[in-house]
User: What shape does this take?
Amino acid sequence: MTLSTELFELGLGLLYDIVREPESGLSEEFEASRRQFFGPQGAPQDGLKGASRDDAQNSVCGARGESASKSADRRHLEWFLFEHAPAARAALVVEELLDTWRSRAPATLCEKTEAFLQSVTGIYTVTQSEAEAPVVLRCMTGMGSLGLGGAQTRGVLHPGDLVVGRLFPLGDGLHHLSPAAEIFRDPRLLAAIERDLEALRASRSRKIMRLSQIELESMFFGGGGSLAEATGDTNALEELREFLKLSGIPAEQVATWFKALRRRPCAADSLTPGVGDSLAEVLETMAFDSDLDLDRARALLLAALPALQGPDSGPPTAPAASHGDGNDQVAAAIKDFDRDRAAGLDVESSFLALESKLGLDDDDSDDDSEAPDFPGVVGAVVEEFLWETQAKEQKLHEGLRLFASYAHKIGVFENLGARDILSFAAFWVPESRQMKNGAEAERLMTALGAFGQWVVETHGIDVLDDELGESLEHMRTSLPRAVVANALLPRVRDVEGELFAFVAAEGSDRGRIRDKAGVEREVSLPTQLASVLESGDLLRGFTRADGEFQVACCYPPQAAGLRV
Assistant: This one.
């Protein structure tokens, strides 16, 4: 079922109300975060925005009657809910508020939490706008085509428009465009951006790039706070040390990472820390040489950078009279861009000058670090796949939304690995009991295989290696078997148990199992379970106080590949 845009806006309003309540403990943090998001200059004042500020048709806010300040407040709220993650917080704000939100939201809205957990920001161009059909956007940073739900954008968006903002999945491959999104209607500006993005993508290994909301604010609206404002936790360095220690990182390795950050400090006015700098190098080393939670590590590193590098450790900068801080530089660059446009200077030349002033024309940035960490990206790619394969295959692939929910914390799509997919299918699906029957499980495995193949063909990213592809093919029969087996079992909570391999049935209610040491024994099993399981299937179980063996969950044999 597709979520209506009106119901979505109701849900977002509930989240805003909860944030502002004193009981949430977030009201003061929300207000204080405005400086981080907008920078010292503050939010834009009332008045239409756009590439041509005297032309209301160039602004979605103008077309919808929104003011600049109202749109800015909405963008700040979206960022605070869906991206804001200071070092002291283990989860996004929206994740912390979900339980309270569910207690107040209508039941139909509670069934669509993915709309609030899998939103994406980006730069898009309109490719289709017809009276009775969804408006279609093409993501200019590699996401493919996405459809818009609701009638609010029909007649407002036209082919060739440039759209900058956040999209929320409504279901059935359709999305809701944030009312605070911006439209630029200038074919030369569109061509200039498209050309530069294509050149950037061609020179880098990652074909899907991500821009966070605070980066878009800096680039298109003149906001965005500095690194020091974005972190500012005086205890961040100690918190980082403790995190690395608890993660088992040797002190010598920690010292090496800290030395690298001190030796080549990130620029204090950098708009994109972690791109082509020493922070990017440390994060890359962490990714390849450790099992750290990279999302948490990146957040803590960003918070600790001011303490690690100190106020005077950065590279020489021009006098303040010439440049000011990073936010003044951004605001001045955009002001110069508007002045050049008003003076009739060629748009392409104006845009290139803007790029240069914002530091966006650096060809030496690190190939493996241009995509910021952005939760929900897997869900966005899944929605793109569902949109492109709709019609008769829509029902077949519907189960992929479960996978999107499972993987919603993955912030960079290229970080999605074969192990993530196998863990979802072989362990999470059986444990969650989300599949109603074996037929649903079989459709899910078919959909995962089709999705992996489509990602390779469309985005050039191979998420299915040969071994995983073979495992998924076998699981078209073994996962349905596990789903049917689990339907015969009562739910057992708060007991881990041990993992055993099923060897053979010994009658209708007994079977032989083998533990990880290779020792076999005969145990009693629920009626019919032994006739469903096959040799090699895995089960998690434990011995009860009365001495009887209790099966808690069954898994396909392919789950064995996940054991360390």
Observations:
- The radius of gyration is 26 Å.
- The chain is about 50% helix and 10% strand.
- The mean pLDDT is 74.
- Residues 438-459 form the longest helix (22 residues).
